[in-house]
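User: Please predict the structure of the protein below. I'd like the answer in structure-token form so I can feed it into my own downstream comparison script.

Assistant: Understood. Taking the following sequence of 307 residues as input:
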Amino acid sequence: MLYYPSMKRVLLFTLVNFAVLIMLSVTCTLLFALFGADIEQVFGDYSNLAVFSLVFGFGGAIVSLLMSKPMAKWSTKARTIDGTEGEAERWLVDTVGDLARRAGVKMPEVAVYPGAANAFATGAFRNSALVAVSTDIMGQMTREELRAVLGHEMTHVSNGDMVTMCLAQGVLNVFVLFFSRIAAGAVESAMESGERGGGRRRRGGGFTYYALVRVFELALGLLAAVLTCWFSRKREFAADAGSARLLGSPSPMIAALRRLGNLQPGILPDSIRAFGIASPKRKESVFATHPALERRIEALQNLEFRG
């Protein structure tokens, strides 16, 4: 069966945008009715606000995705390798190539960066990705363990997790931008209406409005961060399971996670932190991008696996 990942993602992107527009329209109408405010007094045609939110919400996420590879290289000081640098680099490139074939994706760029134990994958397209490992993780892990780590990162690539996270972040950005302004406008309109005995006045440009926008952006932004981190943790379980399937056994991934438990994982830049093999934070919280290592190991041990 032929597979067209780009077409599927374009269709998903279109459907997500359409669903967001419908949800924004329905919810803002209900919100203004709740506060007894007239949306036309506050924003006129609120479709303009919806377009603004979509452009800046998805636009920011998409630009970040498209720039992910060069930004990751720059921020981690990663150097791309081709295997001619030495025996360790040759093994690394050959192993990534083998895992890429098993995963059904094109060979990604392979890079090494200086720092504490960690590894990550990034890139806007599954067939043009970057997989990077730190110098410390290369020195601290056995080759079987490191191969499991690379399998984890290649699963992120083959699952298109970078694009999926971009879509999820874009949707949340839109809701934060849109509803922070809708809520601020509704509250300010209700406040003004009460002060003026129900008089009608177009609002949405004063100090009170902008102060309310910042407050609602902060509150909704925290909620969006909780949802993003929850989704990231789910992806980590899937990537661990994917590594087990690529290698034919969950044992190497379990050994790699146990090894990480005895190391202090390196801190990655915010833009790629969710795609690292581990987080420096040992305890899981609602703001953690990775589940606790113990839970990941338990999930692998309970994995219904057929080699």
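That's the full token string. The chain has eleven helices and four strands.
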